[in-house]
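Reading a protein record of the kind used here takes only a little practice. The record below shows the convention in full.

——
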Amino acid sequence: MKRPPRLVTALTVAAAAIALASCAPPKDDNSSSPDAKNTGASSGQSAEDYLADLVTKAEEEGELNVIALPPDWANYGNVIAAFEEKYDITVNSDQP
């Protein structure tokens, strides 16, 4: 049985190392936004507090921008309309 050349073996090992490295979890890096903070379920914040914070920020900005919430899917259209009516905030819904 003929052994594979050393170059083939070295390339196979290198490819395996690169493949394993690409499976590593991402580095926790918030350097792009120093004021960013963790909000929502992963922070332990209640749904009520999250909604109150969302409404406060939307009122400050004068509108709420959402993406990928088709109005004819999962009742998003009615939910958005109810939100606009209840909080008197314009919701801009973008469909990519």
